[in-house]
Amino acid sequence: MSRLRLCLPFLAVALAGCLDAPVSWSPDGKRVAFRVCRTHQHDQRKSGKGEIWIADVATGACTLVETCDEGLGAPSWSPNGESLAWLTAKGEVVLWRSQGAARRVLAESSPVWDPDALRMQRPSWSPKGDAVAFPLGAEDAASIGWFDAETGDHRTIAENAMFPLFAPDGANILGCQKGQSDNLDLMVWPAAGGAGRRVGSWSKDPPEIPLWPEVWSPDGTAVATSYVTRENNEATLLRVRILPIDGGACVESRAPCESPLSLLVFAWPGGKEGILALGMPHQTHTTPYQIVRIDPATGASELLGGLHGCSYVSGAALSPDGGTIAYLAAGNGDSTPSLRLRSVADGKERIVFPSLEDAIEYLEGMSSEVGSATRSEKAAGFELLCDAALADVEEALVRYPRHSRLIEIQNDILNLHPEK
Predict the structure, then answer these.
(1) E strands, 123-205, where?
(2) pLDDT tens digit string along 93-113?
(3) CATH of 3-353, one of 2.120.10.30, 1.10.645.10, 3.30.200.20, 3.10.129.10
């Protein structure tokens, strides 16, 4: 069995849901598209269900775009902000236009029934928006395909490859491919088709496994990617490797603090901002998630601020103007993930999804179905409401006085019905 096949399920377990990047900003910075996975451990009917939403940044209004019981890949905005692209578990290559909410299947590839593999599948748009690079299939059948966004015409860019990413000028597509002796190589292929060129490789012994997403430097001369080393069947901390495209010496990231943090890159805005990464705590430590800045020249890193109240964070994305970080997080494994917007300047945050209205509706429905929901389910639902309010019930009542129903729901869910 190849390392390309082994890496997906291993990493999904090792990183506890932090591997994917399900958040995408519209080019004008006014909307955020995001993918939510419903994996409530007390309700197997929701396991693996995927939803794609669009949030209005100014108003907080959220619109459900797609839902699929088998799961969905992460969405990606087109450069003109008119379309979203994603992959379904059935292998459908989907384009969705915001004008008229028109959904079109460009093509169909091999199904991706492995939810861990599907969560990491995200298309990459060419800078002109005329083409989309899609990861297709999974495990040993993985490949990268190029699709014409208008006609649906497509061709295979590379076999045994995954994690496609268009270069800033659109001339090349970056990706990871199984190389000689089962090594994993970072490759660059011409977008017009043709043989690829190896940029770097990861060790086979001990095995180094690259992670998606990679990020290009703004000028397209280098790429940064996170990777994990597996030793004694256990994962060590994630590091960041910066590789020049011309084959020069690479730079390795250095830990920003004494507490162990794994670093997962998500943006390279350039200038003094350097490379931005999620700092993920080791399972045995209580350090909160962090936003980390990495110097691409030296690999030195520094902490920019903690993401508190998160038991896991699923991906992050920087707004086009560089002022806001959007990320999905949850307080525990039972919670519906919340979309949070964090100011880069002062670290202030607000929760956009789920809205308090959504939480109220959900909880009222739950409290009326006492016979079909356990107390644990109801407690988890009530935590969803508290997350949405960014506060406990008392403060929520101050901020939303017309929702006097909150206290009744709290008592009904937490006090009146014993655990079954």
Answers:
(1) 124-125, 131-136, 143-148, 154-159, 161-166, 172-178, 184-190, 197-202
(2) 899 998 877 899 988 877 776
(3) 2.120.10.30
